[in-house]
Design brief:
Structural class: alpha/beta
CATH topology: Rossmann fold
Number of domains: 1
Largest sheet: 8 strands, mixed
Number of strands: 10
CATH class: Alpha Beta
Order of helices and strands: EEHEHEHEEHHEHEEEH
Shape: globular
CATH architecture: 3-Layer(aba) Sandwich
Length: 232
């Protein structure tokens, strides 16, 4: 059980466990003015819950292809006061046909491009891009977003470059943040926000350092996540 300031997350029955990536995505995504948000690959439901905490008027659809993940997310969400604003859906985003267009899609997508052969098939599918190819993610965002709507993701640096190539001239990069785990190291993760629009954008670039060499969390990371982590 992971305890945050305003909710708890159980991940025993979910292939992908609670991690820093999900918290970063949920805290960095610019969702404050959005009304309809889609969380693709919701897993435990942590990003969907962070979105509802940050935006009191938003309604969120938490979508996952894995039935076990959806059941876990639904249980976590039902234990909060925001349960009426989150709908859990089991299905493939490529086949998802809602009655609305979304203001924002958030996703911590699978990224390992090679086929995995470990005995845990559910975890393999959650981690492997085989279950959500970047082409499917981009084409689904084109179909499901309103004009001016945005797609925000977190990925390893090398996989992020692949997604940028797939999205080129379809979704325009608006913001990008290189995430450095320990000060002085090369960035291992990238947060990116794309917009569905007709004109190219000049992306705003920034860097986020999580920890300094001495082990202390950076001021910027604390400020970003202080509304969620108990010790910040």
């Amino acid at each position: 059980m992971f305890r945050f300031k305003h909710f708890e997350i159980e991940d025993r029955h979910c292939a992908m466990k609670v991690g820093t990536d999900g918290v970063l995505l949920g805290a960095w995504a610019d969702i404050e003015d959005d009304v309809a948000i889609l969380d693709v690959g919701t897993g435990t439901g942590i990003v969907a819950l962070m979105a509802t905490q940050r935006n009191a008027k938003a309604r969120v659809v938490a979508l996952d292809i894995d039935g076990g993940a959806v059941a876990q997310a639904r249980s976590n969400i039902n234990n909060t006061s925001w349960r009426d604003r989150v709908e859990c859906v089991c299905g493939d985003v490529a086949d998802y046909k809602p009655d609305i267009k979304f203001d924002h899609i958030v996703s911590n997508p699978p990224y390992f491009m090679e086929t995995s052969h470990s005995p845990n098939r559910a975890r393999d599918m959650a981690r492997s891009a085989e279950s959500l190819p970047f082409e499917v993610l981009v084409s689904s965002a084109e179909r499901l977003l309103r004009r001016g709507g945005r797609l925000t993701v977190i990925l390893p640096t090398d996989s992020a470059a692949t997604l940028r190539r797939v999205a080129f001239e379809r979704l325009w990069l608006r913001r990008i943040c290189s995430v450095v785990t320990v000060e002085g190291d090369a960035p291992k993760r990238v947060l990116m926000e794309f917009m569905l629009c007709d004109e190219p954008l000049m992306p705003r670039a920034e860097e986020l350092i999580i920890q300094h060499r001495g082990g202390e969390y950076s001021v910027k990371y604390r400020a970003l996540t202080k509304d969620f982590y108990l010790n910040f």
